[in-house]
Specification:
The chain is an alpha/beta fold. It has 2 domains: 69 residues, Alpha-Beta Plaits (2-Layer Sandwich), CATH 3.30.70; 276 residues, Aldolase class I (TIM Barrel, Alpha-Beta Barrel), CATH 3.20.20.70. 34% of the residues lie in helices and 19% in strands. It has 11 helices and 14 strands. The strands form 3 sheets. It has an 8-stranded parallel barrel, surrounded by 6 helices. The radius of gyration is 22 Å and the shape is globular. It binds phosphoenolpyruvate and manganese (II) ion. One of its GO terms (molecular function) is transferase activity. This is 3-deoxy-7-phosphoheptulonate synthase. Pfam families: DAHP_synth_1 (PF00793). Keywords: Transferase.
């Protein structure tokens, strides 16, 4: 059960203390306080675990300081949607709002290579009005002999360049908790010219020690990619690990499933699950058309499959698009064959905008339909 407390109820207030004393007296119940810093106010929530069946929602709502009690109806206690749960979702990070209601494109290099390429990419993003980017410094590679990413060494100049071109959030994969510390130190050292969204890749979706470590910090938001060979439920539980440790600033990423049934795509595109994740949880949903498709192949209509699947995800309500670009894909050190060209950036963004417009219209249509059904009954 979740108790949502009255807004701005300080932890030092007598009402808050009285409430905790009461909860401590409940047999078989443990609890945990979670503090959510919203745009305008601080929201305190208390998660009750244990024998909560014995508790009545009305009794809990009658307690001083409690605004609402929600019986948790699903497995994803913190990130899930529960019956009667009207809590707002989403979060703000470094001036950018992320929620199930909006959309951001994170275009950029799969792997950071040279300062020239990074600068060309970031300049193109700024020229096209973008404030988010993707930049891989730590790369999980199948072969130990393949380029592993520049790691810590590139962070200061990547962050400085991002700041120079007005990039507010960079999605950057980490493979180990020490990488998170390196990122935080480099941000500190460079004076926070930009922000970082920590990305946990598909190979680490169930690296529980990493999830716990990343979840223990709340400064940086997290993009968790689904595991390529596990069920959606298992991946959503992985996201819950982050939240259960304290970090609820989580975006869930769909990136395709490893299966020959998706051939000739690199992965079996799973963007039909965008609305499923939005229904089951309060997380914004990201799609990665580049790692799903894996090539620049186009249909007879001249539209690349990467564009097609991105549009399919956006038309279904996706909130973030992570997509590979490179100024010179022939020299890219990782994933050159799936990279879009800088001159294709305005085209891609316009295609995404069109798909989003269609989604907005579909949403209005659905609302009008629901109103009609209600007025008929
Ligand atoms: C990536 O986004 O660079 C990446 C490696 O993705 P995934 O974990 O989905 O393979
Ligand atoms: Mn890649």
């Amino acid at each position: 059960m979740i108790l949502i407390l009255e807004a701005d109820l300080g932890e030092q207030s007598p009402i808050f203390r009285q409430l905790l004393t009461h909860l401590r007296g409940l047999a078989g119940i443990q609890f945990r306080v979670h503090r959510e810093q919203g745009a305008e106010q601080v929201l305190n929530e208390i998660y009750l675990i244990g024998d909560t069946k014995q508790l009545r929602v009305e009794d809990m709502e009658a307690l001083p300081g409690v605004e609402k009690a929600i019986r948790v109806s699903r497995e994803y206690r913190m990130l899930g949607r529960h019956t009667g749960d009207q809590r707002t979702h989403g979060f703000e990070y470094n001036g950018v709002r992320f929620s199930q209601d909006n959309l951001h494109v994170f275009a950029g290099l799969c792997a950071v290579d040279t300062p020239e390429h990074v600068e060309q990419m970031l300049r193109a993003l700024q020229d096209n009005g973008q404030v988010c980017a993707r930049m891989g410094a730590y790369k999980p590679r199948t072969s130990p002999y393949a380029f592993q990413g520049h790691g810590k060494a590139c962070l200061p100049w990547v962050f400085d360049l991002a700041g120079k071109y007005g990039i507010r959030v960079i999605a950057m994969e980490i493979l180990h908790e020490s990488h998170m510390d390196e990122i935080r130190e480099a941000l500190e050292m460079t004076g926070h010219p930009t922000g970082v969204m920590l990305q946990i890749g598909t190979r680490n979706t169930q690296n529980f020690a990493l999830l716990k470590a990343v979840g223990r910090q709340q400064a940086l938001p997290v993009l968790l990619k689904r595991g390529f060979g596990i069920t959606l439920e298992e991946s959503l539980n992985a996201a819950e690990y982050l939240a259960s440790e304290g970090n609820t600033k989580v975006i869930f990423g769909l990136r395709g499933m490893k299966s020959n049934l998706g051939d000739p795509h690199r992965n079996f595109v799973d963007f039909a699950q965008v609305p499923v994740v939005k229904r089951l949880t309060r997380m914004p949903v990201c799609i990665d058309p580049s790692h799903s498709v894996g090539s620049r192949d186009a249909g007879p209509d001249g539209i690349m499959d990467i564009f097609h699947v991105a549009a399919q995800g956006v038309v279904a309500g996706a909130n973030m698009v992570l997509v590979d670009f490179h100024p010179d894909p022939m020299t890219a050190l990782v994933d050159g064959p799936q990279a879009l060209l800088l001159k294709e950036l305005p085209w891609f963004l316009e295609d995404v905008r069109l798909a989003r417009e269609v989604y907005e219209e579909r949403r209005l249509l659905a609302t009008a339909q629901a109103d009609m059904v209600e007025s008929d009954s």
